[in-house]
Amino acid sequence: MGAHKDSKADFEELGPRFTQPKDVEMLPDVPTDGTCEKRDASKKASESADDLVLVRVLEDVPTFAGVDKDYKLRKEDVVSIPKNIANTLLSHGKIKIIGSA
Predict the structure, then answer these.
(1) Distance in angstroms between the alpha carbons of the first and the last residue of the chain
(2) Other C-beta atoms within 10 Å of 81: how many?
(3) DSSP labels for 11-73?
C-alpha cells in the first residue's frame, strides 16, 4: 500500500483529477468603490428633490421609523415627507397632501 501512495501512476495515466466543467459561466467584474459612490450620489440628488410631498396631518400618528429618520407626526402638523411614506399614511386617512415640496 505504501508503494502505491508514492507512485504517481494514476495521475500520469488519468490526468489531473480536478478539471473545470465546461458549463461554468464567468461572473462579471465587481464594481469599484467609485462606481457605487457615483450611483449613490446621483440617486440621492434625484430622491431629495422629486420624492418629497407637503402634507397636513389630520390626526396623531404614533412614532415610526422611516428610511432616513424617525417620524413623530401630530394633528395639524404641516411637514414634507417622502412620497412613499405619504402614500401609506394617505391610504390610512392620517394625512392630506397639500402639494409637492
Answers:
(1) 82
(2) 21
(3) HHHH--S----TTPPPPPPPPPHHHHHHHHHHHHHHHHHHSEEEEEE-S-EEEEE-SSSEEEE
- Higher-confidence residue of 26 and 88: namely 88
- CB count, 10 Å around CB of 97? 15
Helix (H, G, I), strand (E, B) or coil at 3: helix
- Residue 4: alpha-carbon gap to chain centroid: 56
Measured CA distances, 74 to 13, 30, 32, 67 (Å): 81, 46, 44, 19
Residue-wise pLDDT tens digits, 12-43: 555 556 666 667 666 677 766 666 666 656 55
Cβ 81 vs Cβ 71: under 8 Å: yes
98 CA to centre of own chain: 30
Q: Considering the entire predicted model, what is its pTM?
A: 0.50
